[in-house]
Queue: 2 jobs
Job 1
Amino acid sequence: MIEIILLGTGSPLVDPLRAGPSTLVRAGGRSFLFDCGRGVLMRAAAVGAPANQLTALLLTHLHSDHITDLNDVITSRWVTTFVPTPLSILGPIGTQSVVNAILSSLGPDIGYRLAHHDDLSWDPAPVVEEVTDGVVFDDGTVRIIAGPTDHRPVDPSIGYRLEHDGHAVVIAGDTVPCAGLDALCAGADALVHTVIRADQVAAIPLPRLTDILDYHSSVEQAAQTATRGGVGTLVLTHYVPPMVPGAEDEWRALAAEHFAGPIELGADLHRIVVGEGS
Ligand SMILES: [Zn+2]
Ligand SMILES: [Zn+2]
């Protein structure tokens, strides 16, 4: 079985109820964190997934809302491990330079802690692998495939397909419908897709908001992608504008016009399991 937990269902818009974009996927005793938005480790703590237990952090793209707390993941991993176990980060081209800049900003803190703790003798530098497509992780239990998505002008952006024990889950990230995402989705048990309400965003006369219509999938487009891929369950997250409690059925109905399978969405920590019993 593969467990999906929507750690943060928010967006760049600060919301008192929703952490920033982040999804935890657990399979075969491994824990994978996809993106690390605002407040991610608070939510991860709620489901027993501390930074020092992560198998890897995978980034879909380098938009700020998806990496807001990357510094916290790096530091928390470092200060709660007792032998050198560098965090593994997979992400698009450009990830290494972002990580280098964060490490630079943490320079004073790293110096303080190294000077203060005799048993801490290594630095927090993660092992970064910049990926584009193909198999990017395979330990014999879990296999992860990356594929290009289309979030231009944010470029590159990538989606991931995690496979375990005959089941597959796709993490789309932010993207418009595209061939790269379709290829990842083919026959997957679940698709976790970030969405915006195009009808609501288009009605707000603010260019800063209506600009986002051209590089995100609407709820309806995410549903169409799921249908094209023959996906089992559609999981919606990253709600823009923030989905108010009680509006779940309204969002679900928009997707249901284009996708006949189960549609999951909700509050932070919403949990979906695929392949139960296997
Ligand atoms: Zn984005
Ligand atoms: Zn986003």
Job 2
Amino acid sequence: MQQLLPKDFLATANVQQAIVVEFENKKTNFMIKKYGNDQYFNLKNLNHIKRIRKSEENPTNVQFFLRLKDDFNDEVEQNIPEEIKPYSLKEVEVAVNMPRTKEQFLQFNKYWPITYKVQQYEIVQFTDIEQKEINQIMRQCIEQAKQTYEKQNKFNACAIYDPNKKKILQFAVDETCRKQNSIKHCTMNVMKLFGQNYIVTAQQKATIVEKVKDIQDEEKNQEDKLQKEDGEEVEEEKKDKINSKRKSEESIEESLSSYYYCTGLDVFIVQEPCIMCSMALIHSRVRRVYYSLKNPKQEQFGGLNEDLMINHMDSLNHSFLVFQNVESEYANTTLSNCQQHDELPK
Ligand SMILES: [Zn+2]
């Protein structure tokens, strides 16, 4: 299993040549004050690089970053102030891409010094137990997916999972072939079923509360009646009553707990969701998506891969984390077995 990360999280250092000006230590303040934020010497897209460093060859000197070599010209040199003379121009190497991970920072910082800001995109480390749980849920999806296998048809199935309750809430399989409906992808199906079964509207909620109140009133009346009739109620019977009351309260709570779309929930899918389904997942406000097999690149069908990360687009109002290759070996074996036997219960 691996986390799908934007390309720049995995990039190696893009090293380019740059021109710096070396002068005496004591003139540092002057240079920083006068030119540190100067328009002319502004760092443009190189905001992650540090402006100044000590000279390695001469400890009484510092080096001030001027421009990338490609942007450097006579005009830049003419703008270097007289006040810092004597100075010399030097060529250095700098990583021009911004580090997105600690590992990249350590690597990129070996060139000209840079700064590093902790990224918004969370990199998740799983414990062995969590990993096992994830694999186990994916295997269940793969088993469900077998049912959708038909000749020359890829199989797919998915599940909506509540990570807090550690419970699969809804399964759905792909129905594009059997029902000859080209949009009945498993993700679309699971969203529909989940909406029907778990999303309680305000009106439904009010009805449930009303019913619960009626039941509770009825129970209380019964109890009062019994106590009046029979003052010596057997202890065991009392306990039973309390237990059944507790149970009914639990089920009331269960029916009242509704979900706001898929907020805080995870979706498991055997095959990478297509672009349409990826958008549906955005709208569902899902927390994470785990999938097993990538869509073949030549089909250009998938929405959650290195080339098209619909889960992480600045223009959309929700983003979620994606993990791929979950139990992919198991999925591949199951798929090839299906093809060999070519028969599955309908
Ligand atoms: Zn789809």
